[in-house]
Specification:
The chain is of the alpha/beta class and 484 residues long. It folds into 3 domains: 47 residues, MYOD Basic-Helix-Loop-Helix Domain, subunit B (Irregular), CATH 4.10.280; 258 residues, 3-Layer(aba) Sandwich (Aspartate Aminotransferase, domain 2); 140 residues, Aspartate Aminotransferase, domain 1. It has 13 helices and 13 strands. Strands 1-7-6-5-4-2-3 form a 7-stranded mixed beta sheet, sandwiched between helices. It has a 4-stranded antiparallel beta sheet with strand order 10-11-13-12. A two-stranded antiparallel ribbon has the order 8-9. The chain is globular and about 70 Å long.
């Protein structure tokens, strides 16, 4: 059919009575002519119908529910570009207020009125900024001491999120991995120290490890580093990647020392759009003090007598998320965040307990420290099972649930696990529906006479074609998927 029919449809034409709806949607070329907004809207909207409902997407950490007022505020700011500080100075100040609030949640010792931090499009940008700052600080010291500065490295557990691989490659900083094993399921402080040398720009500890939901022991790392730095005279700092944990720990586990209370923690990032409870994309990075932010990274803007420091990799970006974040702080307050995170955590613990009771499954860890957890198939059961968790993932997707199955990182890559991330908007009722669907899917899978393709592939140790997931944030290292 001809493309120039695209116009056929006017204010009186019913959307589905129009010529346009008989035409294929454009794939390669822009249509010759316009069509009505109603028709264009319907066509674009309908293309997304076959996708999961975001709130049934238990693979993502990213916010899929905000209340009506938050949504209204964000919609109303949809035409505001954050970078236009001169035209929208209030938003720059609002962002600085958010940084203050977050810095104080993380026990910042900084005495300046405006705490040192930055807004990013997500934790990815925030991690990059934290990493770059550590690298530039290290480089300056090396330069000042007349020492070579061409071989920087940083240390992180093999449970890192893919952004750190990008950081390593884009900035040419060697990434040294401390393996996660079944004995050491989080970052091993001693393992870190063994990898340190004069070229180490920082050690990254993760609060809310993407793969497992667990927290690295930042306090133990800090202690080990204190001893090492004292002995060697180095001053290797810690960057905390608290993409998820940064908005969980302050509310649910305020006693745990993971933040600026620790001497060597010089910077922390978190995703405002994960447990910060804002729609994508917003991330935050905060430095312990102005002195830890290299000058070449910061732009000072003077607004009505207030010094607003601006740092970022990006230029133009939407401002709506800043309004969304500030709204959530005002709307919920400390108590409201605590209640919301408490509910997510309670539902995660409930699911963890119930899944642990299903005979064919085993939880990866006994504890649930963030509102997410992983489990795997009981090894005895797996010997005779005709299916794998990939098949369960497939079955659940037929009921609309997205529950990802994937393999763990190097050293424990033989474990196929499944993960559930519980977020605001996931109720106990939904958890029960999910459990019901998991149980009936298992019953069906147990009736199989022959092994599934994924079972055969797993037995033969050949890659499983996992067609569904490419946005869990962990797949670049997942050798069992065809998506990089
Ligand atoms: C999600 C995540 C990131 C990346 O954050 P985005 O907000 O998706 O850019 C980095 N590190 C960890 C530990 C994460 O969980």
């Amino acid at each position: 059919m001809e493309d120039n029919n695209f116009r056929k449809g006017d204010a009186e034409t019913d959307v589905f009575g129009s010529n346009v709806m008989l035409n294929p949607a454009p794939v390669e070329k822009i249509p010759d002519s316009p069509t009505t907004p109603e028709i264009a809207y319907q066509m674009v909207k309908d293309e997304t119908f076959a996708q999961t409902q975001p709130r049934l997407n238990l693979a993502t950490f990213v916010t899929t529910y905000m209340d009506e007022y938050a949504t209204k505020l964000m919609d109303e700011a949809i035409n505001v570009n954050f970078i236009d500080e001169t035209e929208y100075p209030r938003i720059a100040v609002m962002s600085a207020k958010c940084i203050n609030i977050i810095a104080n949640l993380w026990n910042s010792p900084e005495s300046n009125k405006w705490k040192t931090g930055a807004l990013g499009i997500g934790s990815s940008e925030a991690c990059m900024l934290g990493g770059v700052a550590a690298w530039l600080r290290w480089r300056k010291k090396r330069q000042d001491a007349g020492k070579p500065f061409d071989k920087p490295n940083f240390i992180i557990s093999s449970g890192y999120q893919v952004v750190w691989e990008k950081f390593a490659k884009l900035w040419q900083v060697e990434m040294r991995e401390v393996p996660i094993t079944m004995d050491k399921i989080t970052l091993d402080p001693e393992g870190c120290i063994q990898l340190c040398d004069e070229n180490t720009i920082c050690i990254v500890a993760i609060e809310g490890v993407t793969w497992t939901g667990l927290n690295d022991d930042a306090e133990a790392l800090n202690n080990a580093l204190e001893e090492y730095n004292t002995k060697t005279g180095y001053d290797i700092p810690i960057h905390i990647d608290a993409a998820s944990g940064g908005f969980i720990l302050p509310f649910l586990n305020p006693e745990l020392k993971w933040d600026f209370r620790l001497k060597w923690v010089h910077s922390i990032n978190a995703s405002g759009h994960k447990y910060g409870l804002v729609y994508p994309g917003v991330g935050w990075v905060v430095w312990k003090d102005k002195e830890f932010l290299p000058e070449e990274m910061s732009f000072s803007v003077n607004y009505l007598g207030a010094e607003v420091t601006q740092v970022g990799l990006n230029f133009s970006r939407p401002a709506a998320q800043v309004l969304g974040q500030y709204y959530q702080f005002i709307r919920l307050g400390f108590e409201g965040y605590k209640q919301t995170q408490f509910n997510s955590m309670s539902i995660a613990k409930y699911l963890h307990k119930e899944i642990g009771l299903i005979p064919c499954f085993q939880n990866f860890s006994q504890e649930v420290v963030n509102p997410l957890f992983i489990w795997y198939m009981d090894s005895e059961y797996a010997k005779n099972a005709k299916w794998t968790l990939y098949d369960l993932q497939d079955k659940l997707s037929q009921s609309g649930w997205m529950v990802p199955a994937y393999t763990l990182p190097a050293n424990i890559q033989d474990y196929i696990v499944m993960r559930i991330v519980v977020r605001q908007g996931f109720s106990r009722d939904m958890a029960d529906m999910l459990l019901g669907d998991i149980k009936s899917a298992v019953l069906e899978l147990e009736k199989l006479e022959y092994p599934t393709p994924s079972k055969i592939a797993t037995q033969n140790k050949t890659p499983v074609k996992n067609k569904i997931f490419n946005h869990t944030g962990i797949l670049s290292k997942d050798k069992n998927t065809d998506k990089k």
